[in-house]
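Crash report, auto-generated. Payload:
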Amino acid sequence: MSTKNLQTGQGELFMSPNVEDARAFFHQKKKLMTNKLTSVKEAVERYIHNGDYLAIGGFGGVRIPTSLLHEVIRQQKKNLGFSGHVATHDCQILSAGECFNRCDAAYIVGLEARGLSTNARRLFESGTIQVTEWSNAALSWRFKAAAMGVPFLPCRSMLGTDTFKYSAAKEIECPFTGQKLLAVPALFPDVAFIHVHRADIYGNCQIDGILVADDDIAKASKHVIITTEKIIDHEEIRREPGKTIIPFWCVDAVIEVPFGSYPGNMPGEYYSDEEHLAEWLKKEKNPEEFAAFIRKNILETKDFYEYLQLNGGIQKIQKLHQTEHLL
Amino acid sequence: MSTKNLQTGQGELFMSPNVEDARAFFHQKKKLMTNKLTSVKEAVERYIHNGDYLAIGGFGGVRIPTSLLHEVIRQQKKNLGFSGHVATHDCQILSAGECFNRCDAAYIVGLEARGLSTNARRLFESGTIQVTEWSNAALSWRFKAAAMGVPFLPCRSMLGTDTFKYSAAKEIECPFTGQKLLAVPALFPDVAFIHVHRADIYGNCQIDGILVADDDIAKASKHVIITTEKIIDHEEIRREPGKTIIPFWCVDAVIEVPFGSYPGNMPGEYYSDEEHLAEWLKKEKNPEEFAAFIRKNILETKDFYEYLQLNGGIQKIQKLHQTEHLL
Amino acid sequence: MELMVTIASRNLEDGAVVVVGTGVPCAAAMLAQMTQSPNLTILFEAGGIAPLLPSMPISVGDSRTTYKGLKSTSMAEIMEFCQAGIVDYCFLGGAQIDQYGNLNSTMIGTDYNKPITRFPGSGGANDLASLCWKTMVVTPQNQKRFVKKVDFVTTPGYLQGGNSRTEAGLPVNTGPYKVITDIGVYGYHPETRQMMLLSLHPGKTLDDVKNNAEFEILIPEKYEITEEPTDFELKILREKVDPNGLVIGRK
Amino acid sequence: MELMVTIASRNLEDGAVVVVGTGVPCAAAMLAQMTQSPNLTILFEAGGIAPLLPSMPISVGDSRTTYKGLKSTSMAEIMEFCQAGIVDYCFLGGAQIDQYGNLNSTMIGTDYNKPITRFPGSGGANDLASLCWKTMVVTPQNQKRFVKKVDFVTTPGYLQGGNSRTEAGLPVNTGPYKVITDIGVYGYHPETRQMMLLSLHPGKTLDDVKNNAEFEILIPEKYEITEEPTDFELKILREKVDPNGLVIGRK
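Recovered output after restart:
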């Protein structure tokens, strides 16, 4: 059991894994069940400051907080950091606004089977974005470490690769078995955006289907902004305590945004709008056309309802609802 | 960041936290969805060997696998090890049979507000049981480490105390912050007994209410025996994937044992039988009376149905059902 | 007992988060919720979060602890909330307590391998006292319980006093907060971390304080006389919190 | 493409557990389930477990991946199942692969800070290839993809060959298993861990193997000719697995 040859990733660690600081923050954070309803505009104004580090719930094009991301562009927030934990359409939106200058990257610039975002790649190839590499599991476990209140978690990913070399992880030796392990540092984002199926006005949230990392992200983040398909009565939460994923004390703001994951998929509600997502990718190929597209769809819309309306409104949603239910 | 003065608990580590061995075991374990229905008698005969290390689901007197514990006594299994993760009535039953010779103890010999078990204390005071100390959270995290496939997890409990001194934990330094942390080793039990609300014949299980540590115990254990209040159709499992706590591949045997947590509480179904639990505590004060009590209730009953019948049968259960629902 | 429960309840301010066990702590939390702290969040270590307690649970894990609750989860998640700094208070007891608030609930005797008396052990006590911000102890006071040296440090108080708790690696600014006994209420000296009288119950004397502890309890120049439970507190406690007298005793 | 999907599917025996992505891997797993392996357990890294896939998912996290599934959970839990040794196979691709099966899906270029081409990065690929027992790669084969040295080791194969993978701390007895291309099927030498021909597709030659890789692919004395998809396999693939030709191409 030697401690020889233990390597450290050379990537920048953007956020401190200091659990004492995090504890002190969470200690003073108010834990009253008060009405947290607000608007997308107010929530972004109040909780997002230039330079903040952002975590985005969902899975890139599934259960994503689209309205909040649009508002970040609209309010021209700058120099943000964010965790690219399967960041697909969310990364694409933030790239459209050139809102960030650093990124913990596990999956960025792509949209899975749909292809790659020309515009996001342009940004990441420009040399102006500071990037630290991770894997999906590593980022999941970084959120989990923070949620658990420990400064790191051990794991067995990333060892031996350039992904490790350009990360900010560290090799350690197991105190029991002597084996080499990777330690990933806790990640405490400044703000999380999470879209959920149902929430009460205090921020108790239910999510259907996969959680991705949102249970942990909500606990890891200093501030949490929830958009929800529906506000439900507080009594509904208490009727099935087993369904509550995020408890109220994690949450700072709640906004009812029906169809809020559009053009992403909302499990059980509506499927992704593949035509519109293809349009994004197509427009990106021509910077001028893309700029006009973003102006029309985001900058010059006053809210998410206008965006929905521009792209088919209720009828489109109904169609996506039918696709979701295989009709 | 020095590595000076890091302490190691002097307690015995009963089970190896070697994840490579555990991986190899789980690799070869069959993962076919086959009909796993069997009887309590067969399951204990087949999966429990003298000397095995046992983990018991539930919370001592809540959602406990009583029928399996009785059968362990009936079959006179000996020299078992077990994790005393809030072991109350379960510890009391195993103590009645003098089935074990070693124990990872977080909470033993007591029954919470009900008092202490004279007989279990006699055993633990006899010097014949090897005990290693832990806290509840430490044991929870030991199961979680095993479930996650890592040889240890860091935490901030037990530091500075005799609980640590008589544990098998180790102090470590955080590779990022330099702070002192406690490392708890993964715990891979030989067999787990878990009582659930609903399971299909393949072992996919649903649990209502608190999980305690049973999600992790099921993943950590080499063999898992499930008793269930009800067998449900496989289709019911697929109707609500979000409700599945234990997936089939963890499970070796499934037995339908209605009222199987009696005399413990089964959340949503029936409350604990406080009169009968008080009778256990009372009988224990006189060793001869207690031996007769155990003969009558366990050794000379052929199965759990007889035990239920002896203690009030359906009528008693109906009463406990009403108590559970505050009637 | 009514006095002790009431004092404990007064320490739980609105908006606080508390992990409780059965008995006195649970009664105190319920009383607080029904008086000055409607927004008190009550957690149970087995996984119950913020139930609308219909009656006192018998077990920290029984179904009362999730009755109309906000969430039901695992023990690990509750402990992780504590570890993350979410939880303000925990309530503990024990067979022995020393001047630094260290607690013994493991064994009486000098040989670990052959205890004279074996108790349950830590359970969640060590975790809660390590990870929550403030530890409160509610206990009867006598020389057998208030000892110079506990036979086994199950649960950390301020360890050897001074900075030793932080040096051991436990979270900073955490530790024993108050001890509520049948004689008085105690805190800890901000530097030495020795137990110190805060208030004396009506009818009790400084001799009662001294004669019921093996170690020296610091007596500051100024201490208070405990305020008795109000009629309102007693009414709520007797009629709503514990109508069957499980904790406060049957009438 | 039909050939590649079919070969991939034949490698998934009944009772195995596989983590798949969208596209070819998902089609292969579905085909295996509808032919020789009804008990194949299919996981998706975003949290979907054993769905009855009604059609091909577009995203590894979309609602198809939990359709009538056995469980829906978090990404961490899926990865932990892999880390615990539960998962037999994973399927990966990449922009570049070297002779030891190391994969690049991060960037093309020599300066990490200013990539010529930026790709998505690891996603879950590094984790799956680190933690599952056997890694399968399905990829078109040419000199641009089969390179002497990948520009960035996103995902571990056998690293520098020999024992280097285990020495790096990755789980023992894991690693690249097969590479399925449009030319042949490859395995790895049991000691040097170099890529090695296992079977040649009908109509392809050893020159095709050699001319479409920058590195030397080992050619053993004995290798097989790939068995073409059976009529039954093709029928299932075309009619049930991928009726819209998303993976196998539209007719």
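Post-recovery validation: The first strand of chain C starts at residue 17 and ends at 20.
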